[in-house]
């Protein structure tokens, strides 16, 4: 098992590809520049089996339609954001990309709760981690000791909460009661910027001090 970080789209959102020795993969948050992602997949002879979305803000979904159609694969999203893919107002693209709002077909699978998810030969622990958005999900892959957390937790920072559906206290609760409960050696594959670790953020993230 291995994984690759590929920044994509107008905000260089981190897309991640988790793949196995059979060159099968799941894709997290293809935010744009579908041609870049498809080129990398082709070059490395990797065939994706599904798209998993940590949430549905515009910068995380820009290449969903292209990748889904190219590989004929299913899309998974939290049920609280099921209509964000079809609504440029809710995914924010109408405001941030008024000349090219993002609108795609609904997701094939709606997720909820904390549970185990089996897709494309991969098993991931799925955790609801709202706060940045109401349907934010973090996907933990035990075998590679990595959590794909979207915009919940960053290196030295946390996700913004000033967008519709965001809540600062809810975000802090998600981080402390869910992400920081993972093993300290867990790699945090963030939605933007460099990867980090649970241990590093516990030790030095200034936004997590004084939480109660």
From TrEMBL:
Cofactor entry: Zn(2+)
Coiled coil start-end: none
Pfam families registered for this protein in UniProt: Lactamase_B
Superkingdom per UniProt: Bacteria
Domain Metallo-beta-lactamase residues, every copy: 12-192
Molecular-function annotations in GO: hydrolase activity; metal ion binding
Name of the protein: Glyoxylase, beta-lactamase superfamily II
Keyword annotations of the record: Hydrolase, Metal-binding, Zinc
Classification via InterPro entries: MBL_Glyoxalase_II, Metallo-B-lactamas, RibonucZ/Hydroxyglut_hydro
Record lineage: Bacteria, Bacillati, Bacillota, Bacilli, Bacillales
Signal peptide residues on this chain, from the entry's feature table: none
Cross-referenced CDD domains: metallo-hydrolase-like_MBL-fold (cd06262)
């Amino acid at each position: 098992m291995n994984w690759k970080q590929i920044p994509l789209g107008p905000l260089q959102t981190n897309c991640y590809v988790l793949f196995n020795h059979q060159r099968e993969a799941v894709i997290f948050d293809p935010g744009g520049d579908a041609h870049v992602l498809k080129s990398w997949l082709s070059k490395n002879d990797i065939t994706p089996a599904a798209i998993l979305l940590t949430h549905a803000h515009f910068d995380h979904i820009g290449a969903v339609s292209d990748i889904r159609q190219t590989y004929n694969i299913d899309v998974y999203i939290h049920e609280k954001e099921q209509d964000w893919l079809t609504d440029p107002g809710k995914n924010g693209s109408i405001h941030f990309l008024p000349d090219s709002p993002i609108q795609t077909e609904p997701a094939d699978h709606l997720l909820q709760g904390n549970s185990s998810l089996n897709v494309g030969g991969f098993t991931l622990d799925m955790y609801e981690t709202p706060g940045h958005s109401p349907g934010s999900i973090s996907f933990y892959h035990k075998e590679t000791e990595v959590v794909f957390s979207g915009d919940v937790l960053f290196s030295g920072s946390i996700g913004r909460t000033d967008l519709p559906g965001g809540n600062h206290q809810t975000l802090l609760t998600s981080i402390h009661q869910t992400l920081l409960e993972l093993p300290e050696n867990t790699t945090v594959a963030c939605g933007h910027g460099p990867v980090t670790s649970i241990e590093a953020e516990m030790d030095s993230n200034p936004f997590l001090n004084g939480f109660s």
